[in-house]
Design a protein that fits this description.
single chain; alpha/beta; 11 helices; about 50% helix
Length: about 260
């Protein structure tokens, strides 16, 4: 699989590093990855990992099986117009990693007037920054075709789920924005830990391991947050006091309101 990644910013670079981290799961390794970006400084660390890098978007997409566009939303139309003459629509898939652009608009931008294969298989991919650690929650919205290669690729970088386009804003809030929300909880818990007597770094280590444990419990078949909470909330105990104090301060409402605020 020859992969072209256009854009080596935070998300494009994270996707590229995640693919390299998948190691043997990419049949011929990082040499099948071509990354383009106008800033040489962002390409140098990727080249050091064995990827082909270039300042030319056109050179990157030539012969690619999957073209991943990781540029700012306002640049997507411009980049598509630049590279689409060099993409083989009969065999290649185009995955767009950009928020706020509907598939109907992408179809218009991708169209090659007068050609038999007027559109390639294309989709929207919405990962989060944990993609570099192969722990992303990625959502795929198909525009044309099933984009099986793109789904397979992003499945190597965490969990990938095909959803309806109408659910993408909510999915983005839960998983992409959700990374920041989870980090804010960790930061708040660290501050609480410092007030309780721990050094910040030690508090962080404790909280991270606690979250790993919580995730592992929830990953078990039939598990539910409330059933796990019930296991540690004894009558008159300290856990229920803490939970009730958080709810008194609006914990659940704050989370729901934050999710709704970030869903356009």
């Amino acid at each position: 699989m020859k992969i072209a990644i256009i854009g080596a910013g935070a998300m494009g670079g994270a996707i590229a590093r995640g693919i390299v981290a998948s190691g043997s799961e990419i049949p011929q390794g990082a040499c099948d990855i071509n990354v383009s970006n106008p800033t040489p400084g962002k390409l140098e660390p990727l080249a050091a990992l064995g990827m082909h890098t270039s300042a030319s978007n056109v050179e990157a997409v030539k012969g690619a099986d999957v073209v991943i566009l990781c540029v700012k939303p306002w640049l997507v139309e411009q980049v598509i117009a630049e590279v689409k003459p060099y993409i083989d629509y009969a065999s290649a898939e185009v995955a767009v990693v950009a928020a706020g652009i509907p598939t109907s608009t992408l179809a218009q931008w991708l169209e090659k007037p007068g050609e038999t294969d007027a559109l390639p298989q294309f989709c929207i991919e919405m990962p989060n920054t944990a993609v570099s650690q192969r722990e992303s929650m990625t959502f795929q919205v198909n525009g044309k075709g099933e984009c099986a290669s793109s789904l397979s690729l992003f499945s190597r970088l965490g969990e990938a789920m095909v959803i309806e386009e109408r659910l993408l804003p909510a999915a983005t809030s839960l998983a992409s924005c959700g990374i920041a929300y989870a980090m804010r909880y960790v930061r708040a818990a660290m501050e609480g830990g410092v007030e309780l007597g721990f050094r910040a770094q030690l508090a962080q280590e404790i909280i991270v391991q606690t979250l790993r444990g919580a995730v592992s419990l929830l990953a078990q078949p039939g598990s539910h947050p409330e059933s796990e909470i019930d296991k540690v909330t004894t009558p008159g105990g300290i856990t229920i006091r803490g939970l009730n104090a958080m709810e008194h301060s609006g914990f659940t409402s704050a989370v729901i309101n934050g999710l709704k605020a970030s869903t356009k």
